[in-house]
Amino acid sequence: EVLLLESGGGLVQPGGSLRLSCAASGFTFSMYAMNWVRQAPGKGLEWVSAITGSGGSTFYPDSVKGRFTISRDNSKNTLYLQMNSLRAEDTALYYCAKTPGSNAFDIWGQGTMVTVSS
Amino acid sequence: SYELTQPPSVSVSPGQTATITCSGDKLGDKYACWYQQKPGQSPVLVIYQDTKRPSGIPERFSGSNSGNTATLTISGTQAMDEADYYCQAWDSTTYYVFGTGTKVTVL
Question: Which of B42, B48, B101 sits opposite A108 (nearest CB)?
């Protein structure tokens, strides 16, 4: 069974940092691009970052560029999101999602909640 | 930046057809996909590459994409189809873009 399990969320003060992890199982992790997608409470979905299977290329929307860093360790089948200079508007449920090559997200984790508040 | 617009809500009677639209500039030139999200659950891919259904998705879900509009159609809508639906496309400058979301209510 293909599974994605996020962890690392929590409460952090504005300006603080947090690192999220996503443990993958049930597929050849290194063959697939991976992403982070977030959803603020009661709001829609927002793509946050993407990384190629090798980890050689990364992509971000302007809203997080320069503050967030996506990375992966293919030997550990784990995806990461380092979040710095956090703002209240970064409060959301963060999902990791697998991209099969069709520019869609075919598998999603259950999400980990990040709350930025003083 | 690239934007995708959906109607906030769609209501449908059980057994009838629900149609959800997603509008974006020259969206028909890109691949569109659709996600279903029920309360408290993670999104589920129901349509990708405009018209394809992932394994396990019922045949009553279908998609199309032309011009500036992609459409998700749910034929013979069931109570279990009540959910939020999001379209999504990939753009060369904005990368992954989600639509604004549509709440489908089965009355």
Answer: B42
B86 contacts in chain A (CB < 8 Å): 44-45
Q: What is the pLDDT along chain B (107 residues), one digit of tens a residue?
A: 899 999 999 999 999 999 999 999 999 999 999 999 999 999 999 999 999 999 999 999 999 999 999 999 999 999 999 999 999 999 888 899 999 999 999 99
Q: Which residues are CB-contacts of B4 (< 8 A; sequence separation ≥ 6)?
A: B22, B23, B24, B27, B87, B88, B89, B97, B98, B99, B100
Distances (CA, A) of A34 to A47, A55, B7, B20, B86: 11, 9, 29, 28, 19
Query: Does B44 lie at the interface with A, CB-CB under 8 angstroms?
Result: yes
Q: Which residues of B touch A109 (CB under 8 A)?
A: 42
A102 touches chain B (CB under 8 A): yes
- B98 near A CB under 8 A: yes
> What angle (nearest 5°) sits at the alpha carbon of residue B39, between those of residues B24 and A97?
60
Using CA atoms, how far apart are residues A30 and A34, in angstroms rounded to an integer? 9
CA atoms of B4 and B21, how far apart (whole Å): 10
Tokens coding A64: 């997080």
For the stretch A48-68, pLDDT in tens is 999 999 999 999 999 999 999
Q: A47 in contact with B at a CB cutoff of 8 Å?
A: yes
Asked if residues A87 and A14 have their Cβ atoms less than 8 Å apart, the reply is yes
Considering only CA atoms, which of A79, A48, A80, A45 is closest in space to residue A61? A48
